[in-house]
Amino acid sequence: MIARRFGTSIVIPCLLAIWAPGCLEHEVKTTINADGTCERTITLNPESKQIPKTSFPLPGDGSWDTSWTKTGDAKYLVSFTKKFKDFEELSREYLYPADSLKIRLDLRVGKSFRWFYTYYDYVETYGRFTDYTLIDPITVLTEDEIHRLTYGDTSQALKNKHEEWVARNLYEAIYRRFGLGAEAMQDTFLTPATMAAHKEELFRLIVGWTGSGLKLQDPNHILKEQSTYRGTEATMLTDSSITDEGVNAFCEIAARTFKCEGVWKLKDQIRAGWQDALKMLKGKGTTGESFANTVVLPGILLETNAPDVKGSAASWKFSVDQLQLRDFAMRARSRVVNEWAIAVTGVIVLVLLGLLVLSLIRHAKRAALTHHSE
Could you say which of 97, 121, 158, 175 would form a disulfide bridge with 110 (CB–CB 3.0 to 4.6 Å)? Predict the structure, then answer.
């Protein structure tokens, strides 16, 4: 059964074999050289010697070198490697029309000359990737909470709020079908005003909402406990279908909440709404994929938002579900000492000092000659 709770825990990454047979891991390493050339390697771990289906935009042409390696656990590693002549060519690699089924990447590297130093700025962004788009995250979470969740905060209260946001998206998919059906039916007791007045009440009842940041309940349990279908196969979501008992139990609870028996005439719309929610559960960002992104910059690393830094290498690790709320941006800056500039400056200083000394000597000689002639 898919549904454990009507939220993020409905989808248990890497365990739901119906659409996620394994955790696909992506390792991406980008090396930035001081002369402007770059190299990028993308490595994945598919179950067989076939290019796996992935939400990551893999190279689509023959300009990348591809190599296969068999690992000890009977799995494979496939690597794509390409060298770029300059930063612009690297950035252009991801300047293509967005594919809605792939994560949108934006990669930029900048180089700024400051005489004694040259600075290198790397920014790579994985775009927001989710089908949970019916409810804006800011309606449930603060900007700070969204940022913390995006960058890996695992506190339980934040997880609960994230689960509530997912649940509200799923509920909205159901409610929109429900509302359109009620509007078309034109029942005098099930008006848009009545629907709007009790919308939140039904949501809180179905998920057992008791407050922001608190855990939600299993809606299948509530269906049985809050209706006359206790002991039946009353489930909202299963691996492949929605049971008749589940639809009936939902109608019973909704009719009681909206105080209108006309709800029973909307069973087809309710079922269609649940099917929309099921598609959302199996949509973008629910496959359990993980990413390990590393950039190696020339010189000394000055600043970065990476949690892992080794020398001039900055690394980030995150999963696809961290792209549900906002873009995931990775930033790093390094500095290279321009030794030639120091040498040139030293020569200039020595020349200037020499000229100054010569000027002083000449001035002293003139002063001495003037004094002697007097």
Answer: 121
Query: Considering all CA atoms of the chain, what is the largest pairwise distance in Å, rounded to the nearest integer?
Result: 127
Task: Name the residue with tokens 């119906």.
Answer: 18
Please report where in the chains the tokens 């139990």 appear, as a residue: 249
Lookup result for tokens 């409905």: 10
Domain residue limits at 87: 8-131+287-337
Q: Are 105 and 144 members of one domain?
A: no
Alpha helices in the chain (DSSP H): 87-92, 143-150, 156-185, 192-207, 219-225, 244-258, 267-281, 339-373
pTM here?
Answer: 0.85
Q: Are residues 100 and 168 located together in one domain of the fold?
A: no
User: C-alpha distances in angstroms, 200 versus 207, 249, 257, 358?
Assistant: 11, 18, 10, 89
pLDDT digits (tens, 9 = 90+) for 170-223: 999 999 999 999 999 999 889 999 999 999 999 999 999 999 999 999 888 888
Answer for the pair 146, 136: CB distance below 8 angstroms, yes or no: no
Instruction: Give the H/E segment covering residue 64.
Output: none
